[in-house]
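Morning run. Coffee first, then this:
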Amino acid sequence: MKYGEQQIKNAKLEVWPNQNKKRDYLIEITLPEFTCLCPRSGYPDFATIFVKYIPDQKVVELKSIKLYINKFRDIHISHEDAANEILDSLVKLLSPRWIEVKAEFSPRGNVKTVVTVHFKKKGYELPFMRTGQKSKFKS
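And here it is:
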């Protein structure tokens, strides 16, 4: 097994402490090389994963999310389940104030799929909702 394959096999999401806990700010991560396998046909699916979140106590370490995303390449999983699994993993790890995961799959067989899932911490109000302004955190 090559060193990259070993890193992907052993990948675990890691965190850093949020140094700016008192402030709401948006982190956006784009992962343009997501792959998984169709659970029905076994054909590869390709997507760009967009993660947007407002951290609370922790932020995700970037190399760890890259390796975590690469673990999906040999998994038979639907588009919907992939987006939800990524969201659930990040919510469990980070316990963010707010998070959105958008999985934009490349067309296959004349079908393009975009799956967007959200989580908001109970009682948390998004910053744009407090002022009545339109969202700066568009999907």
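The chain has a mean pLDDT of 93. Good start to the day.
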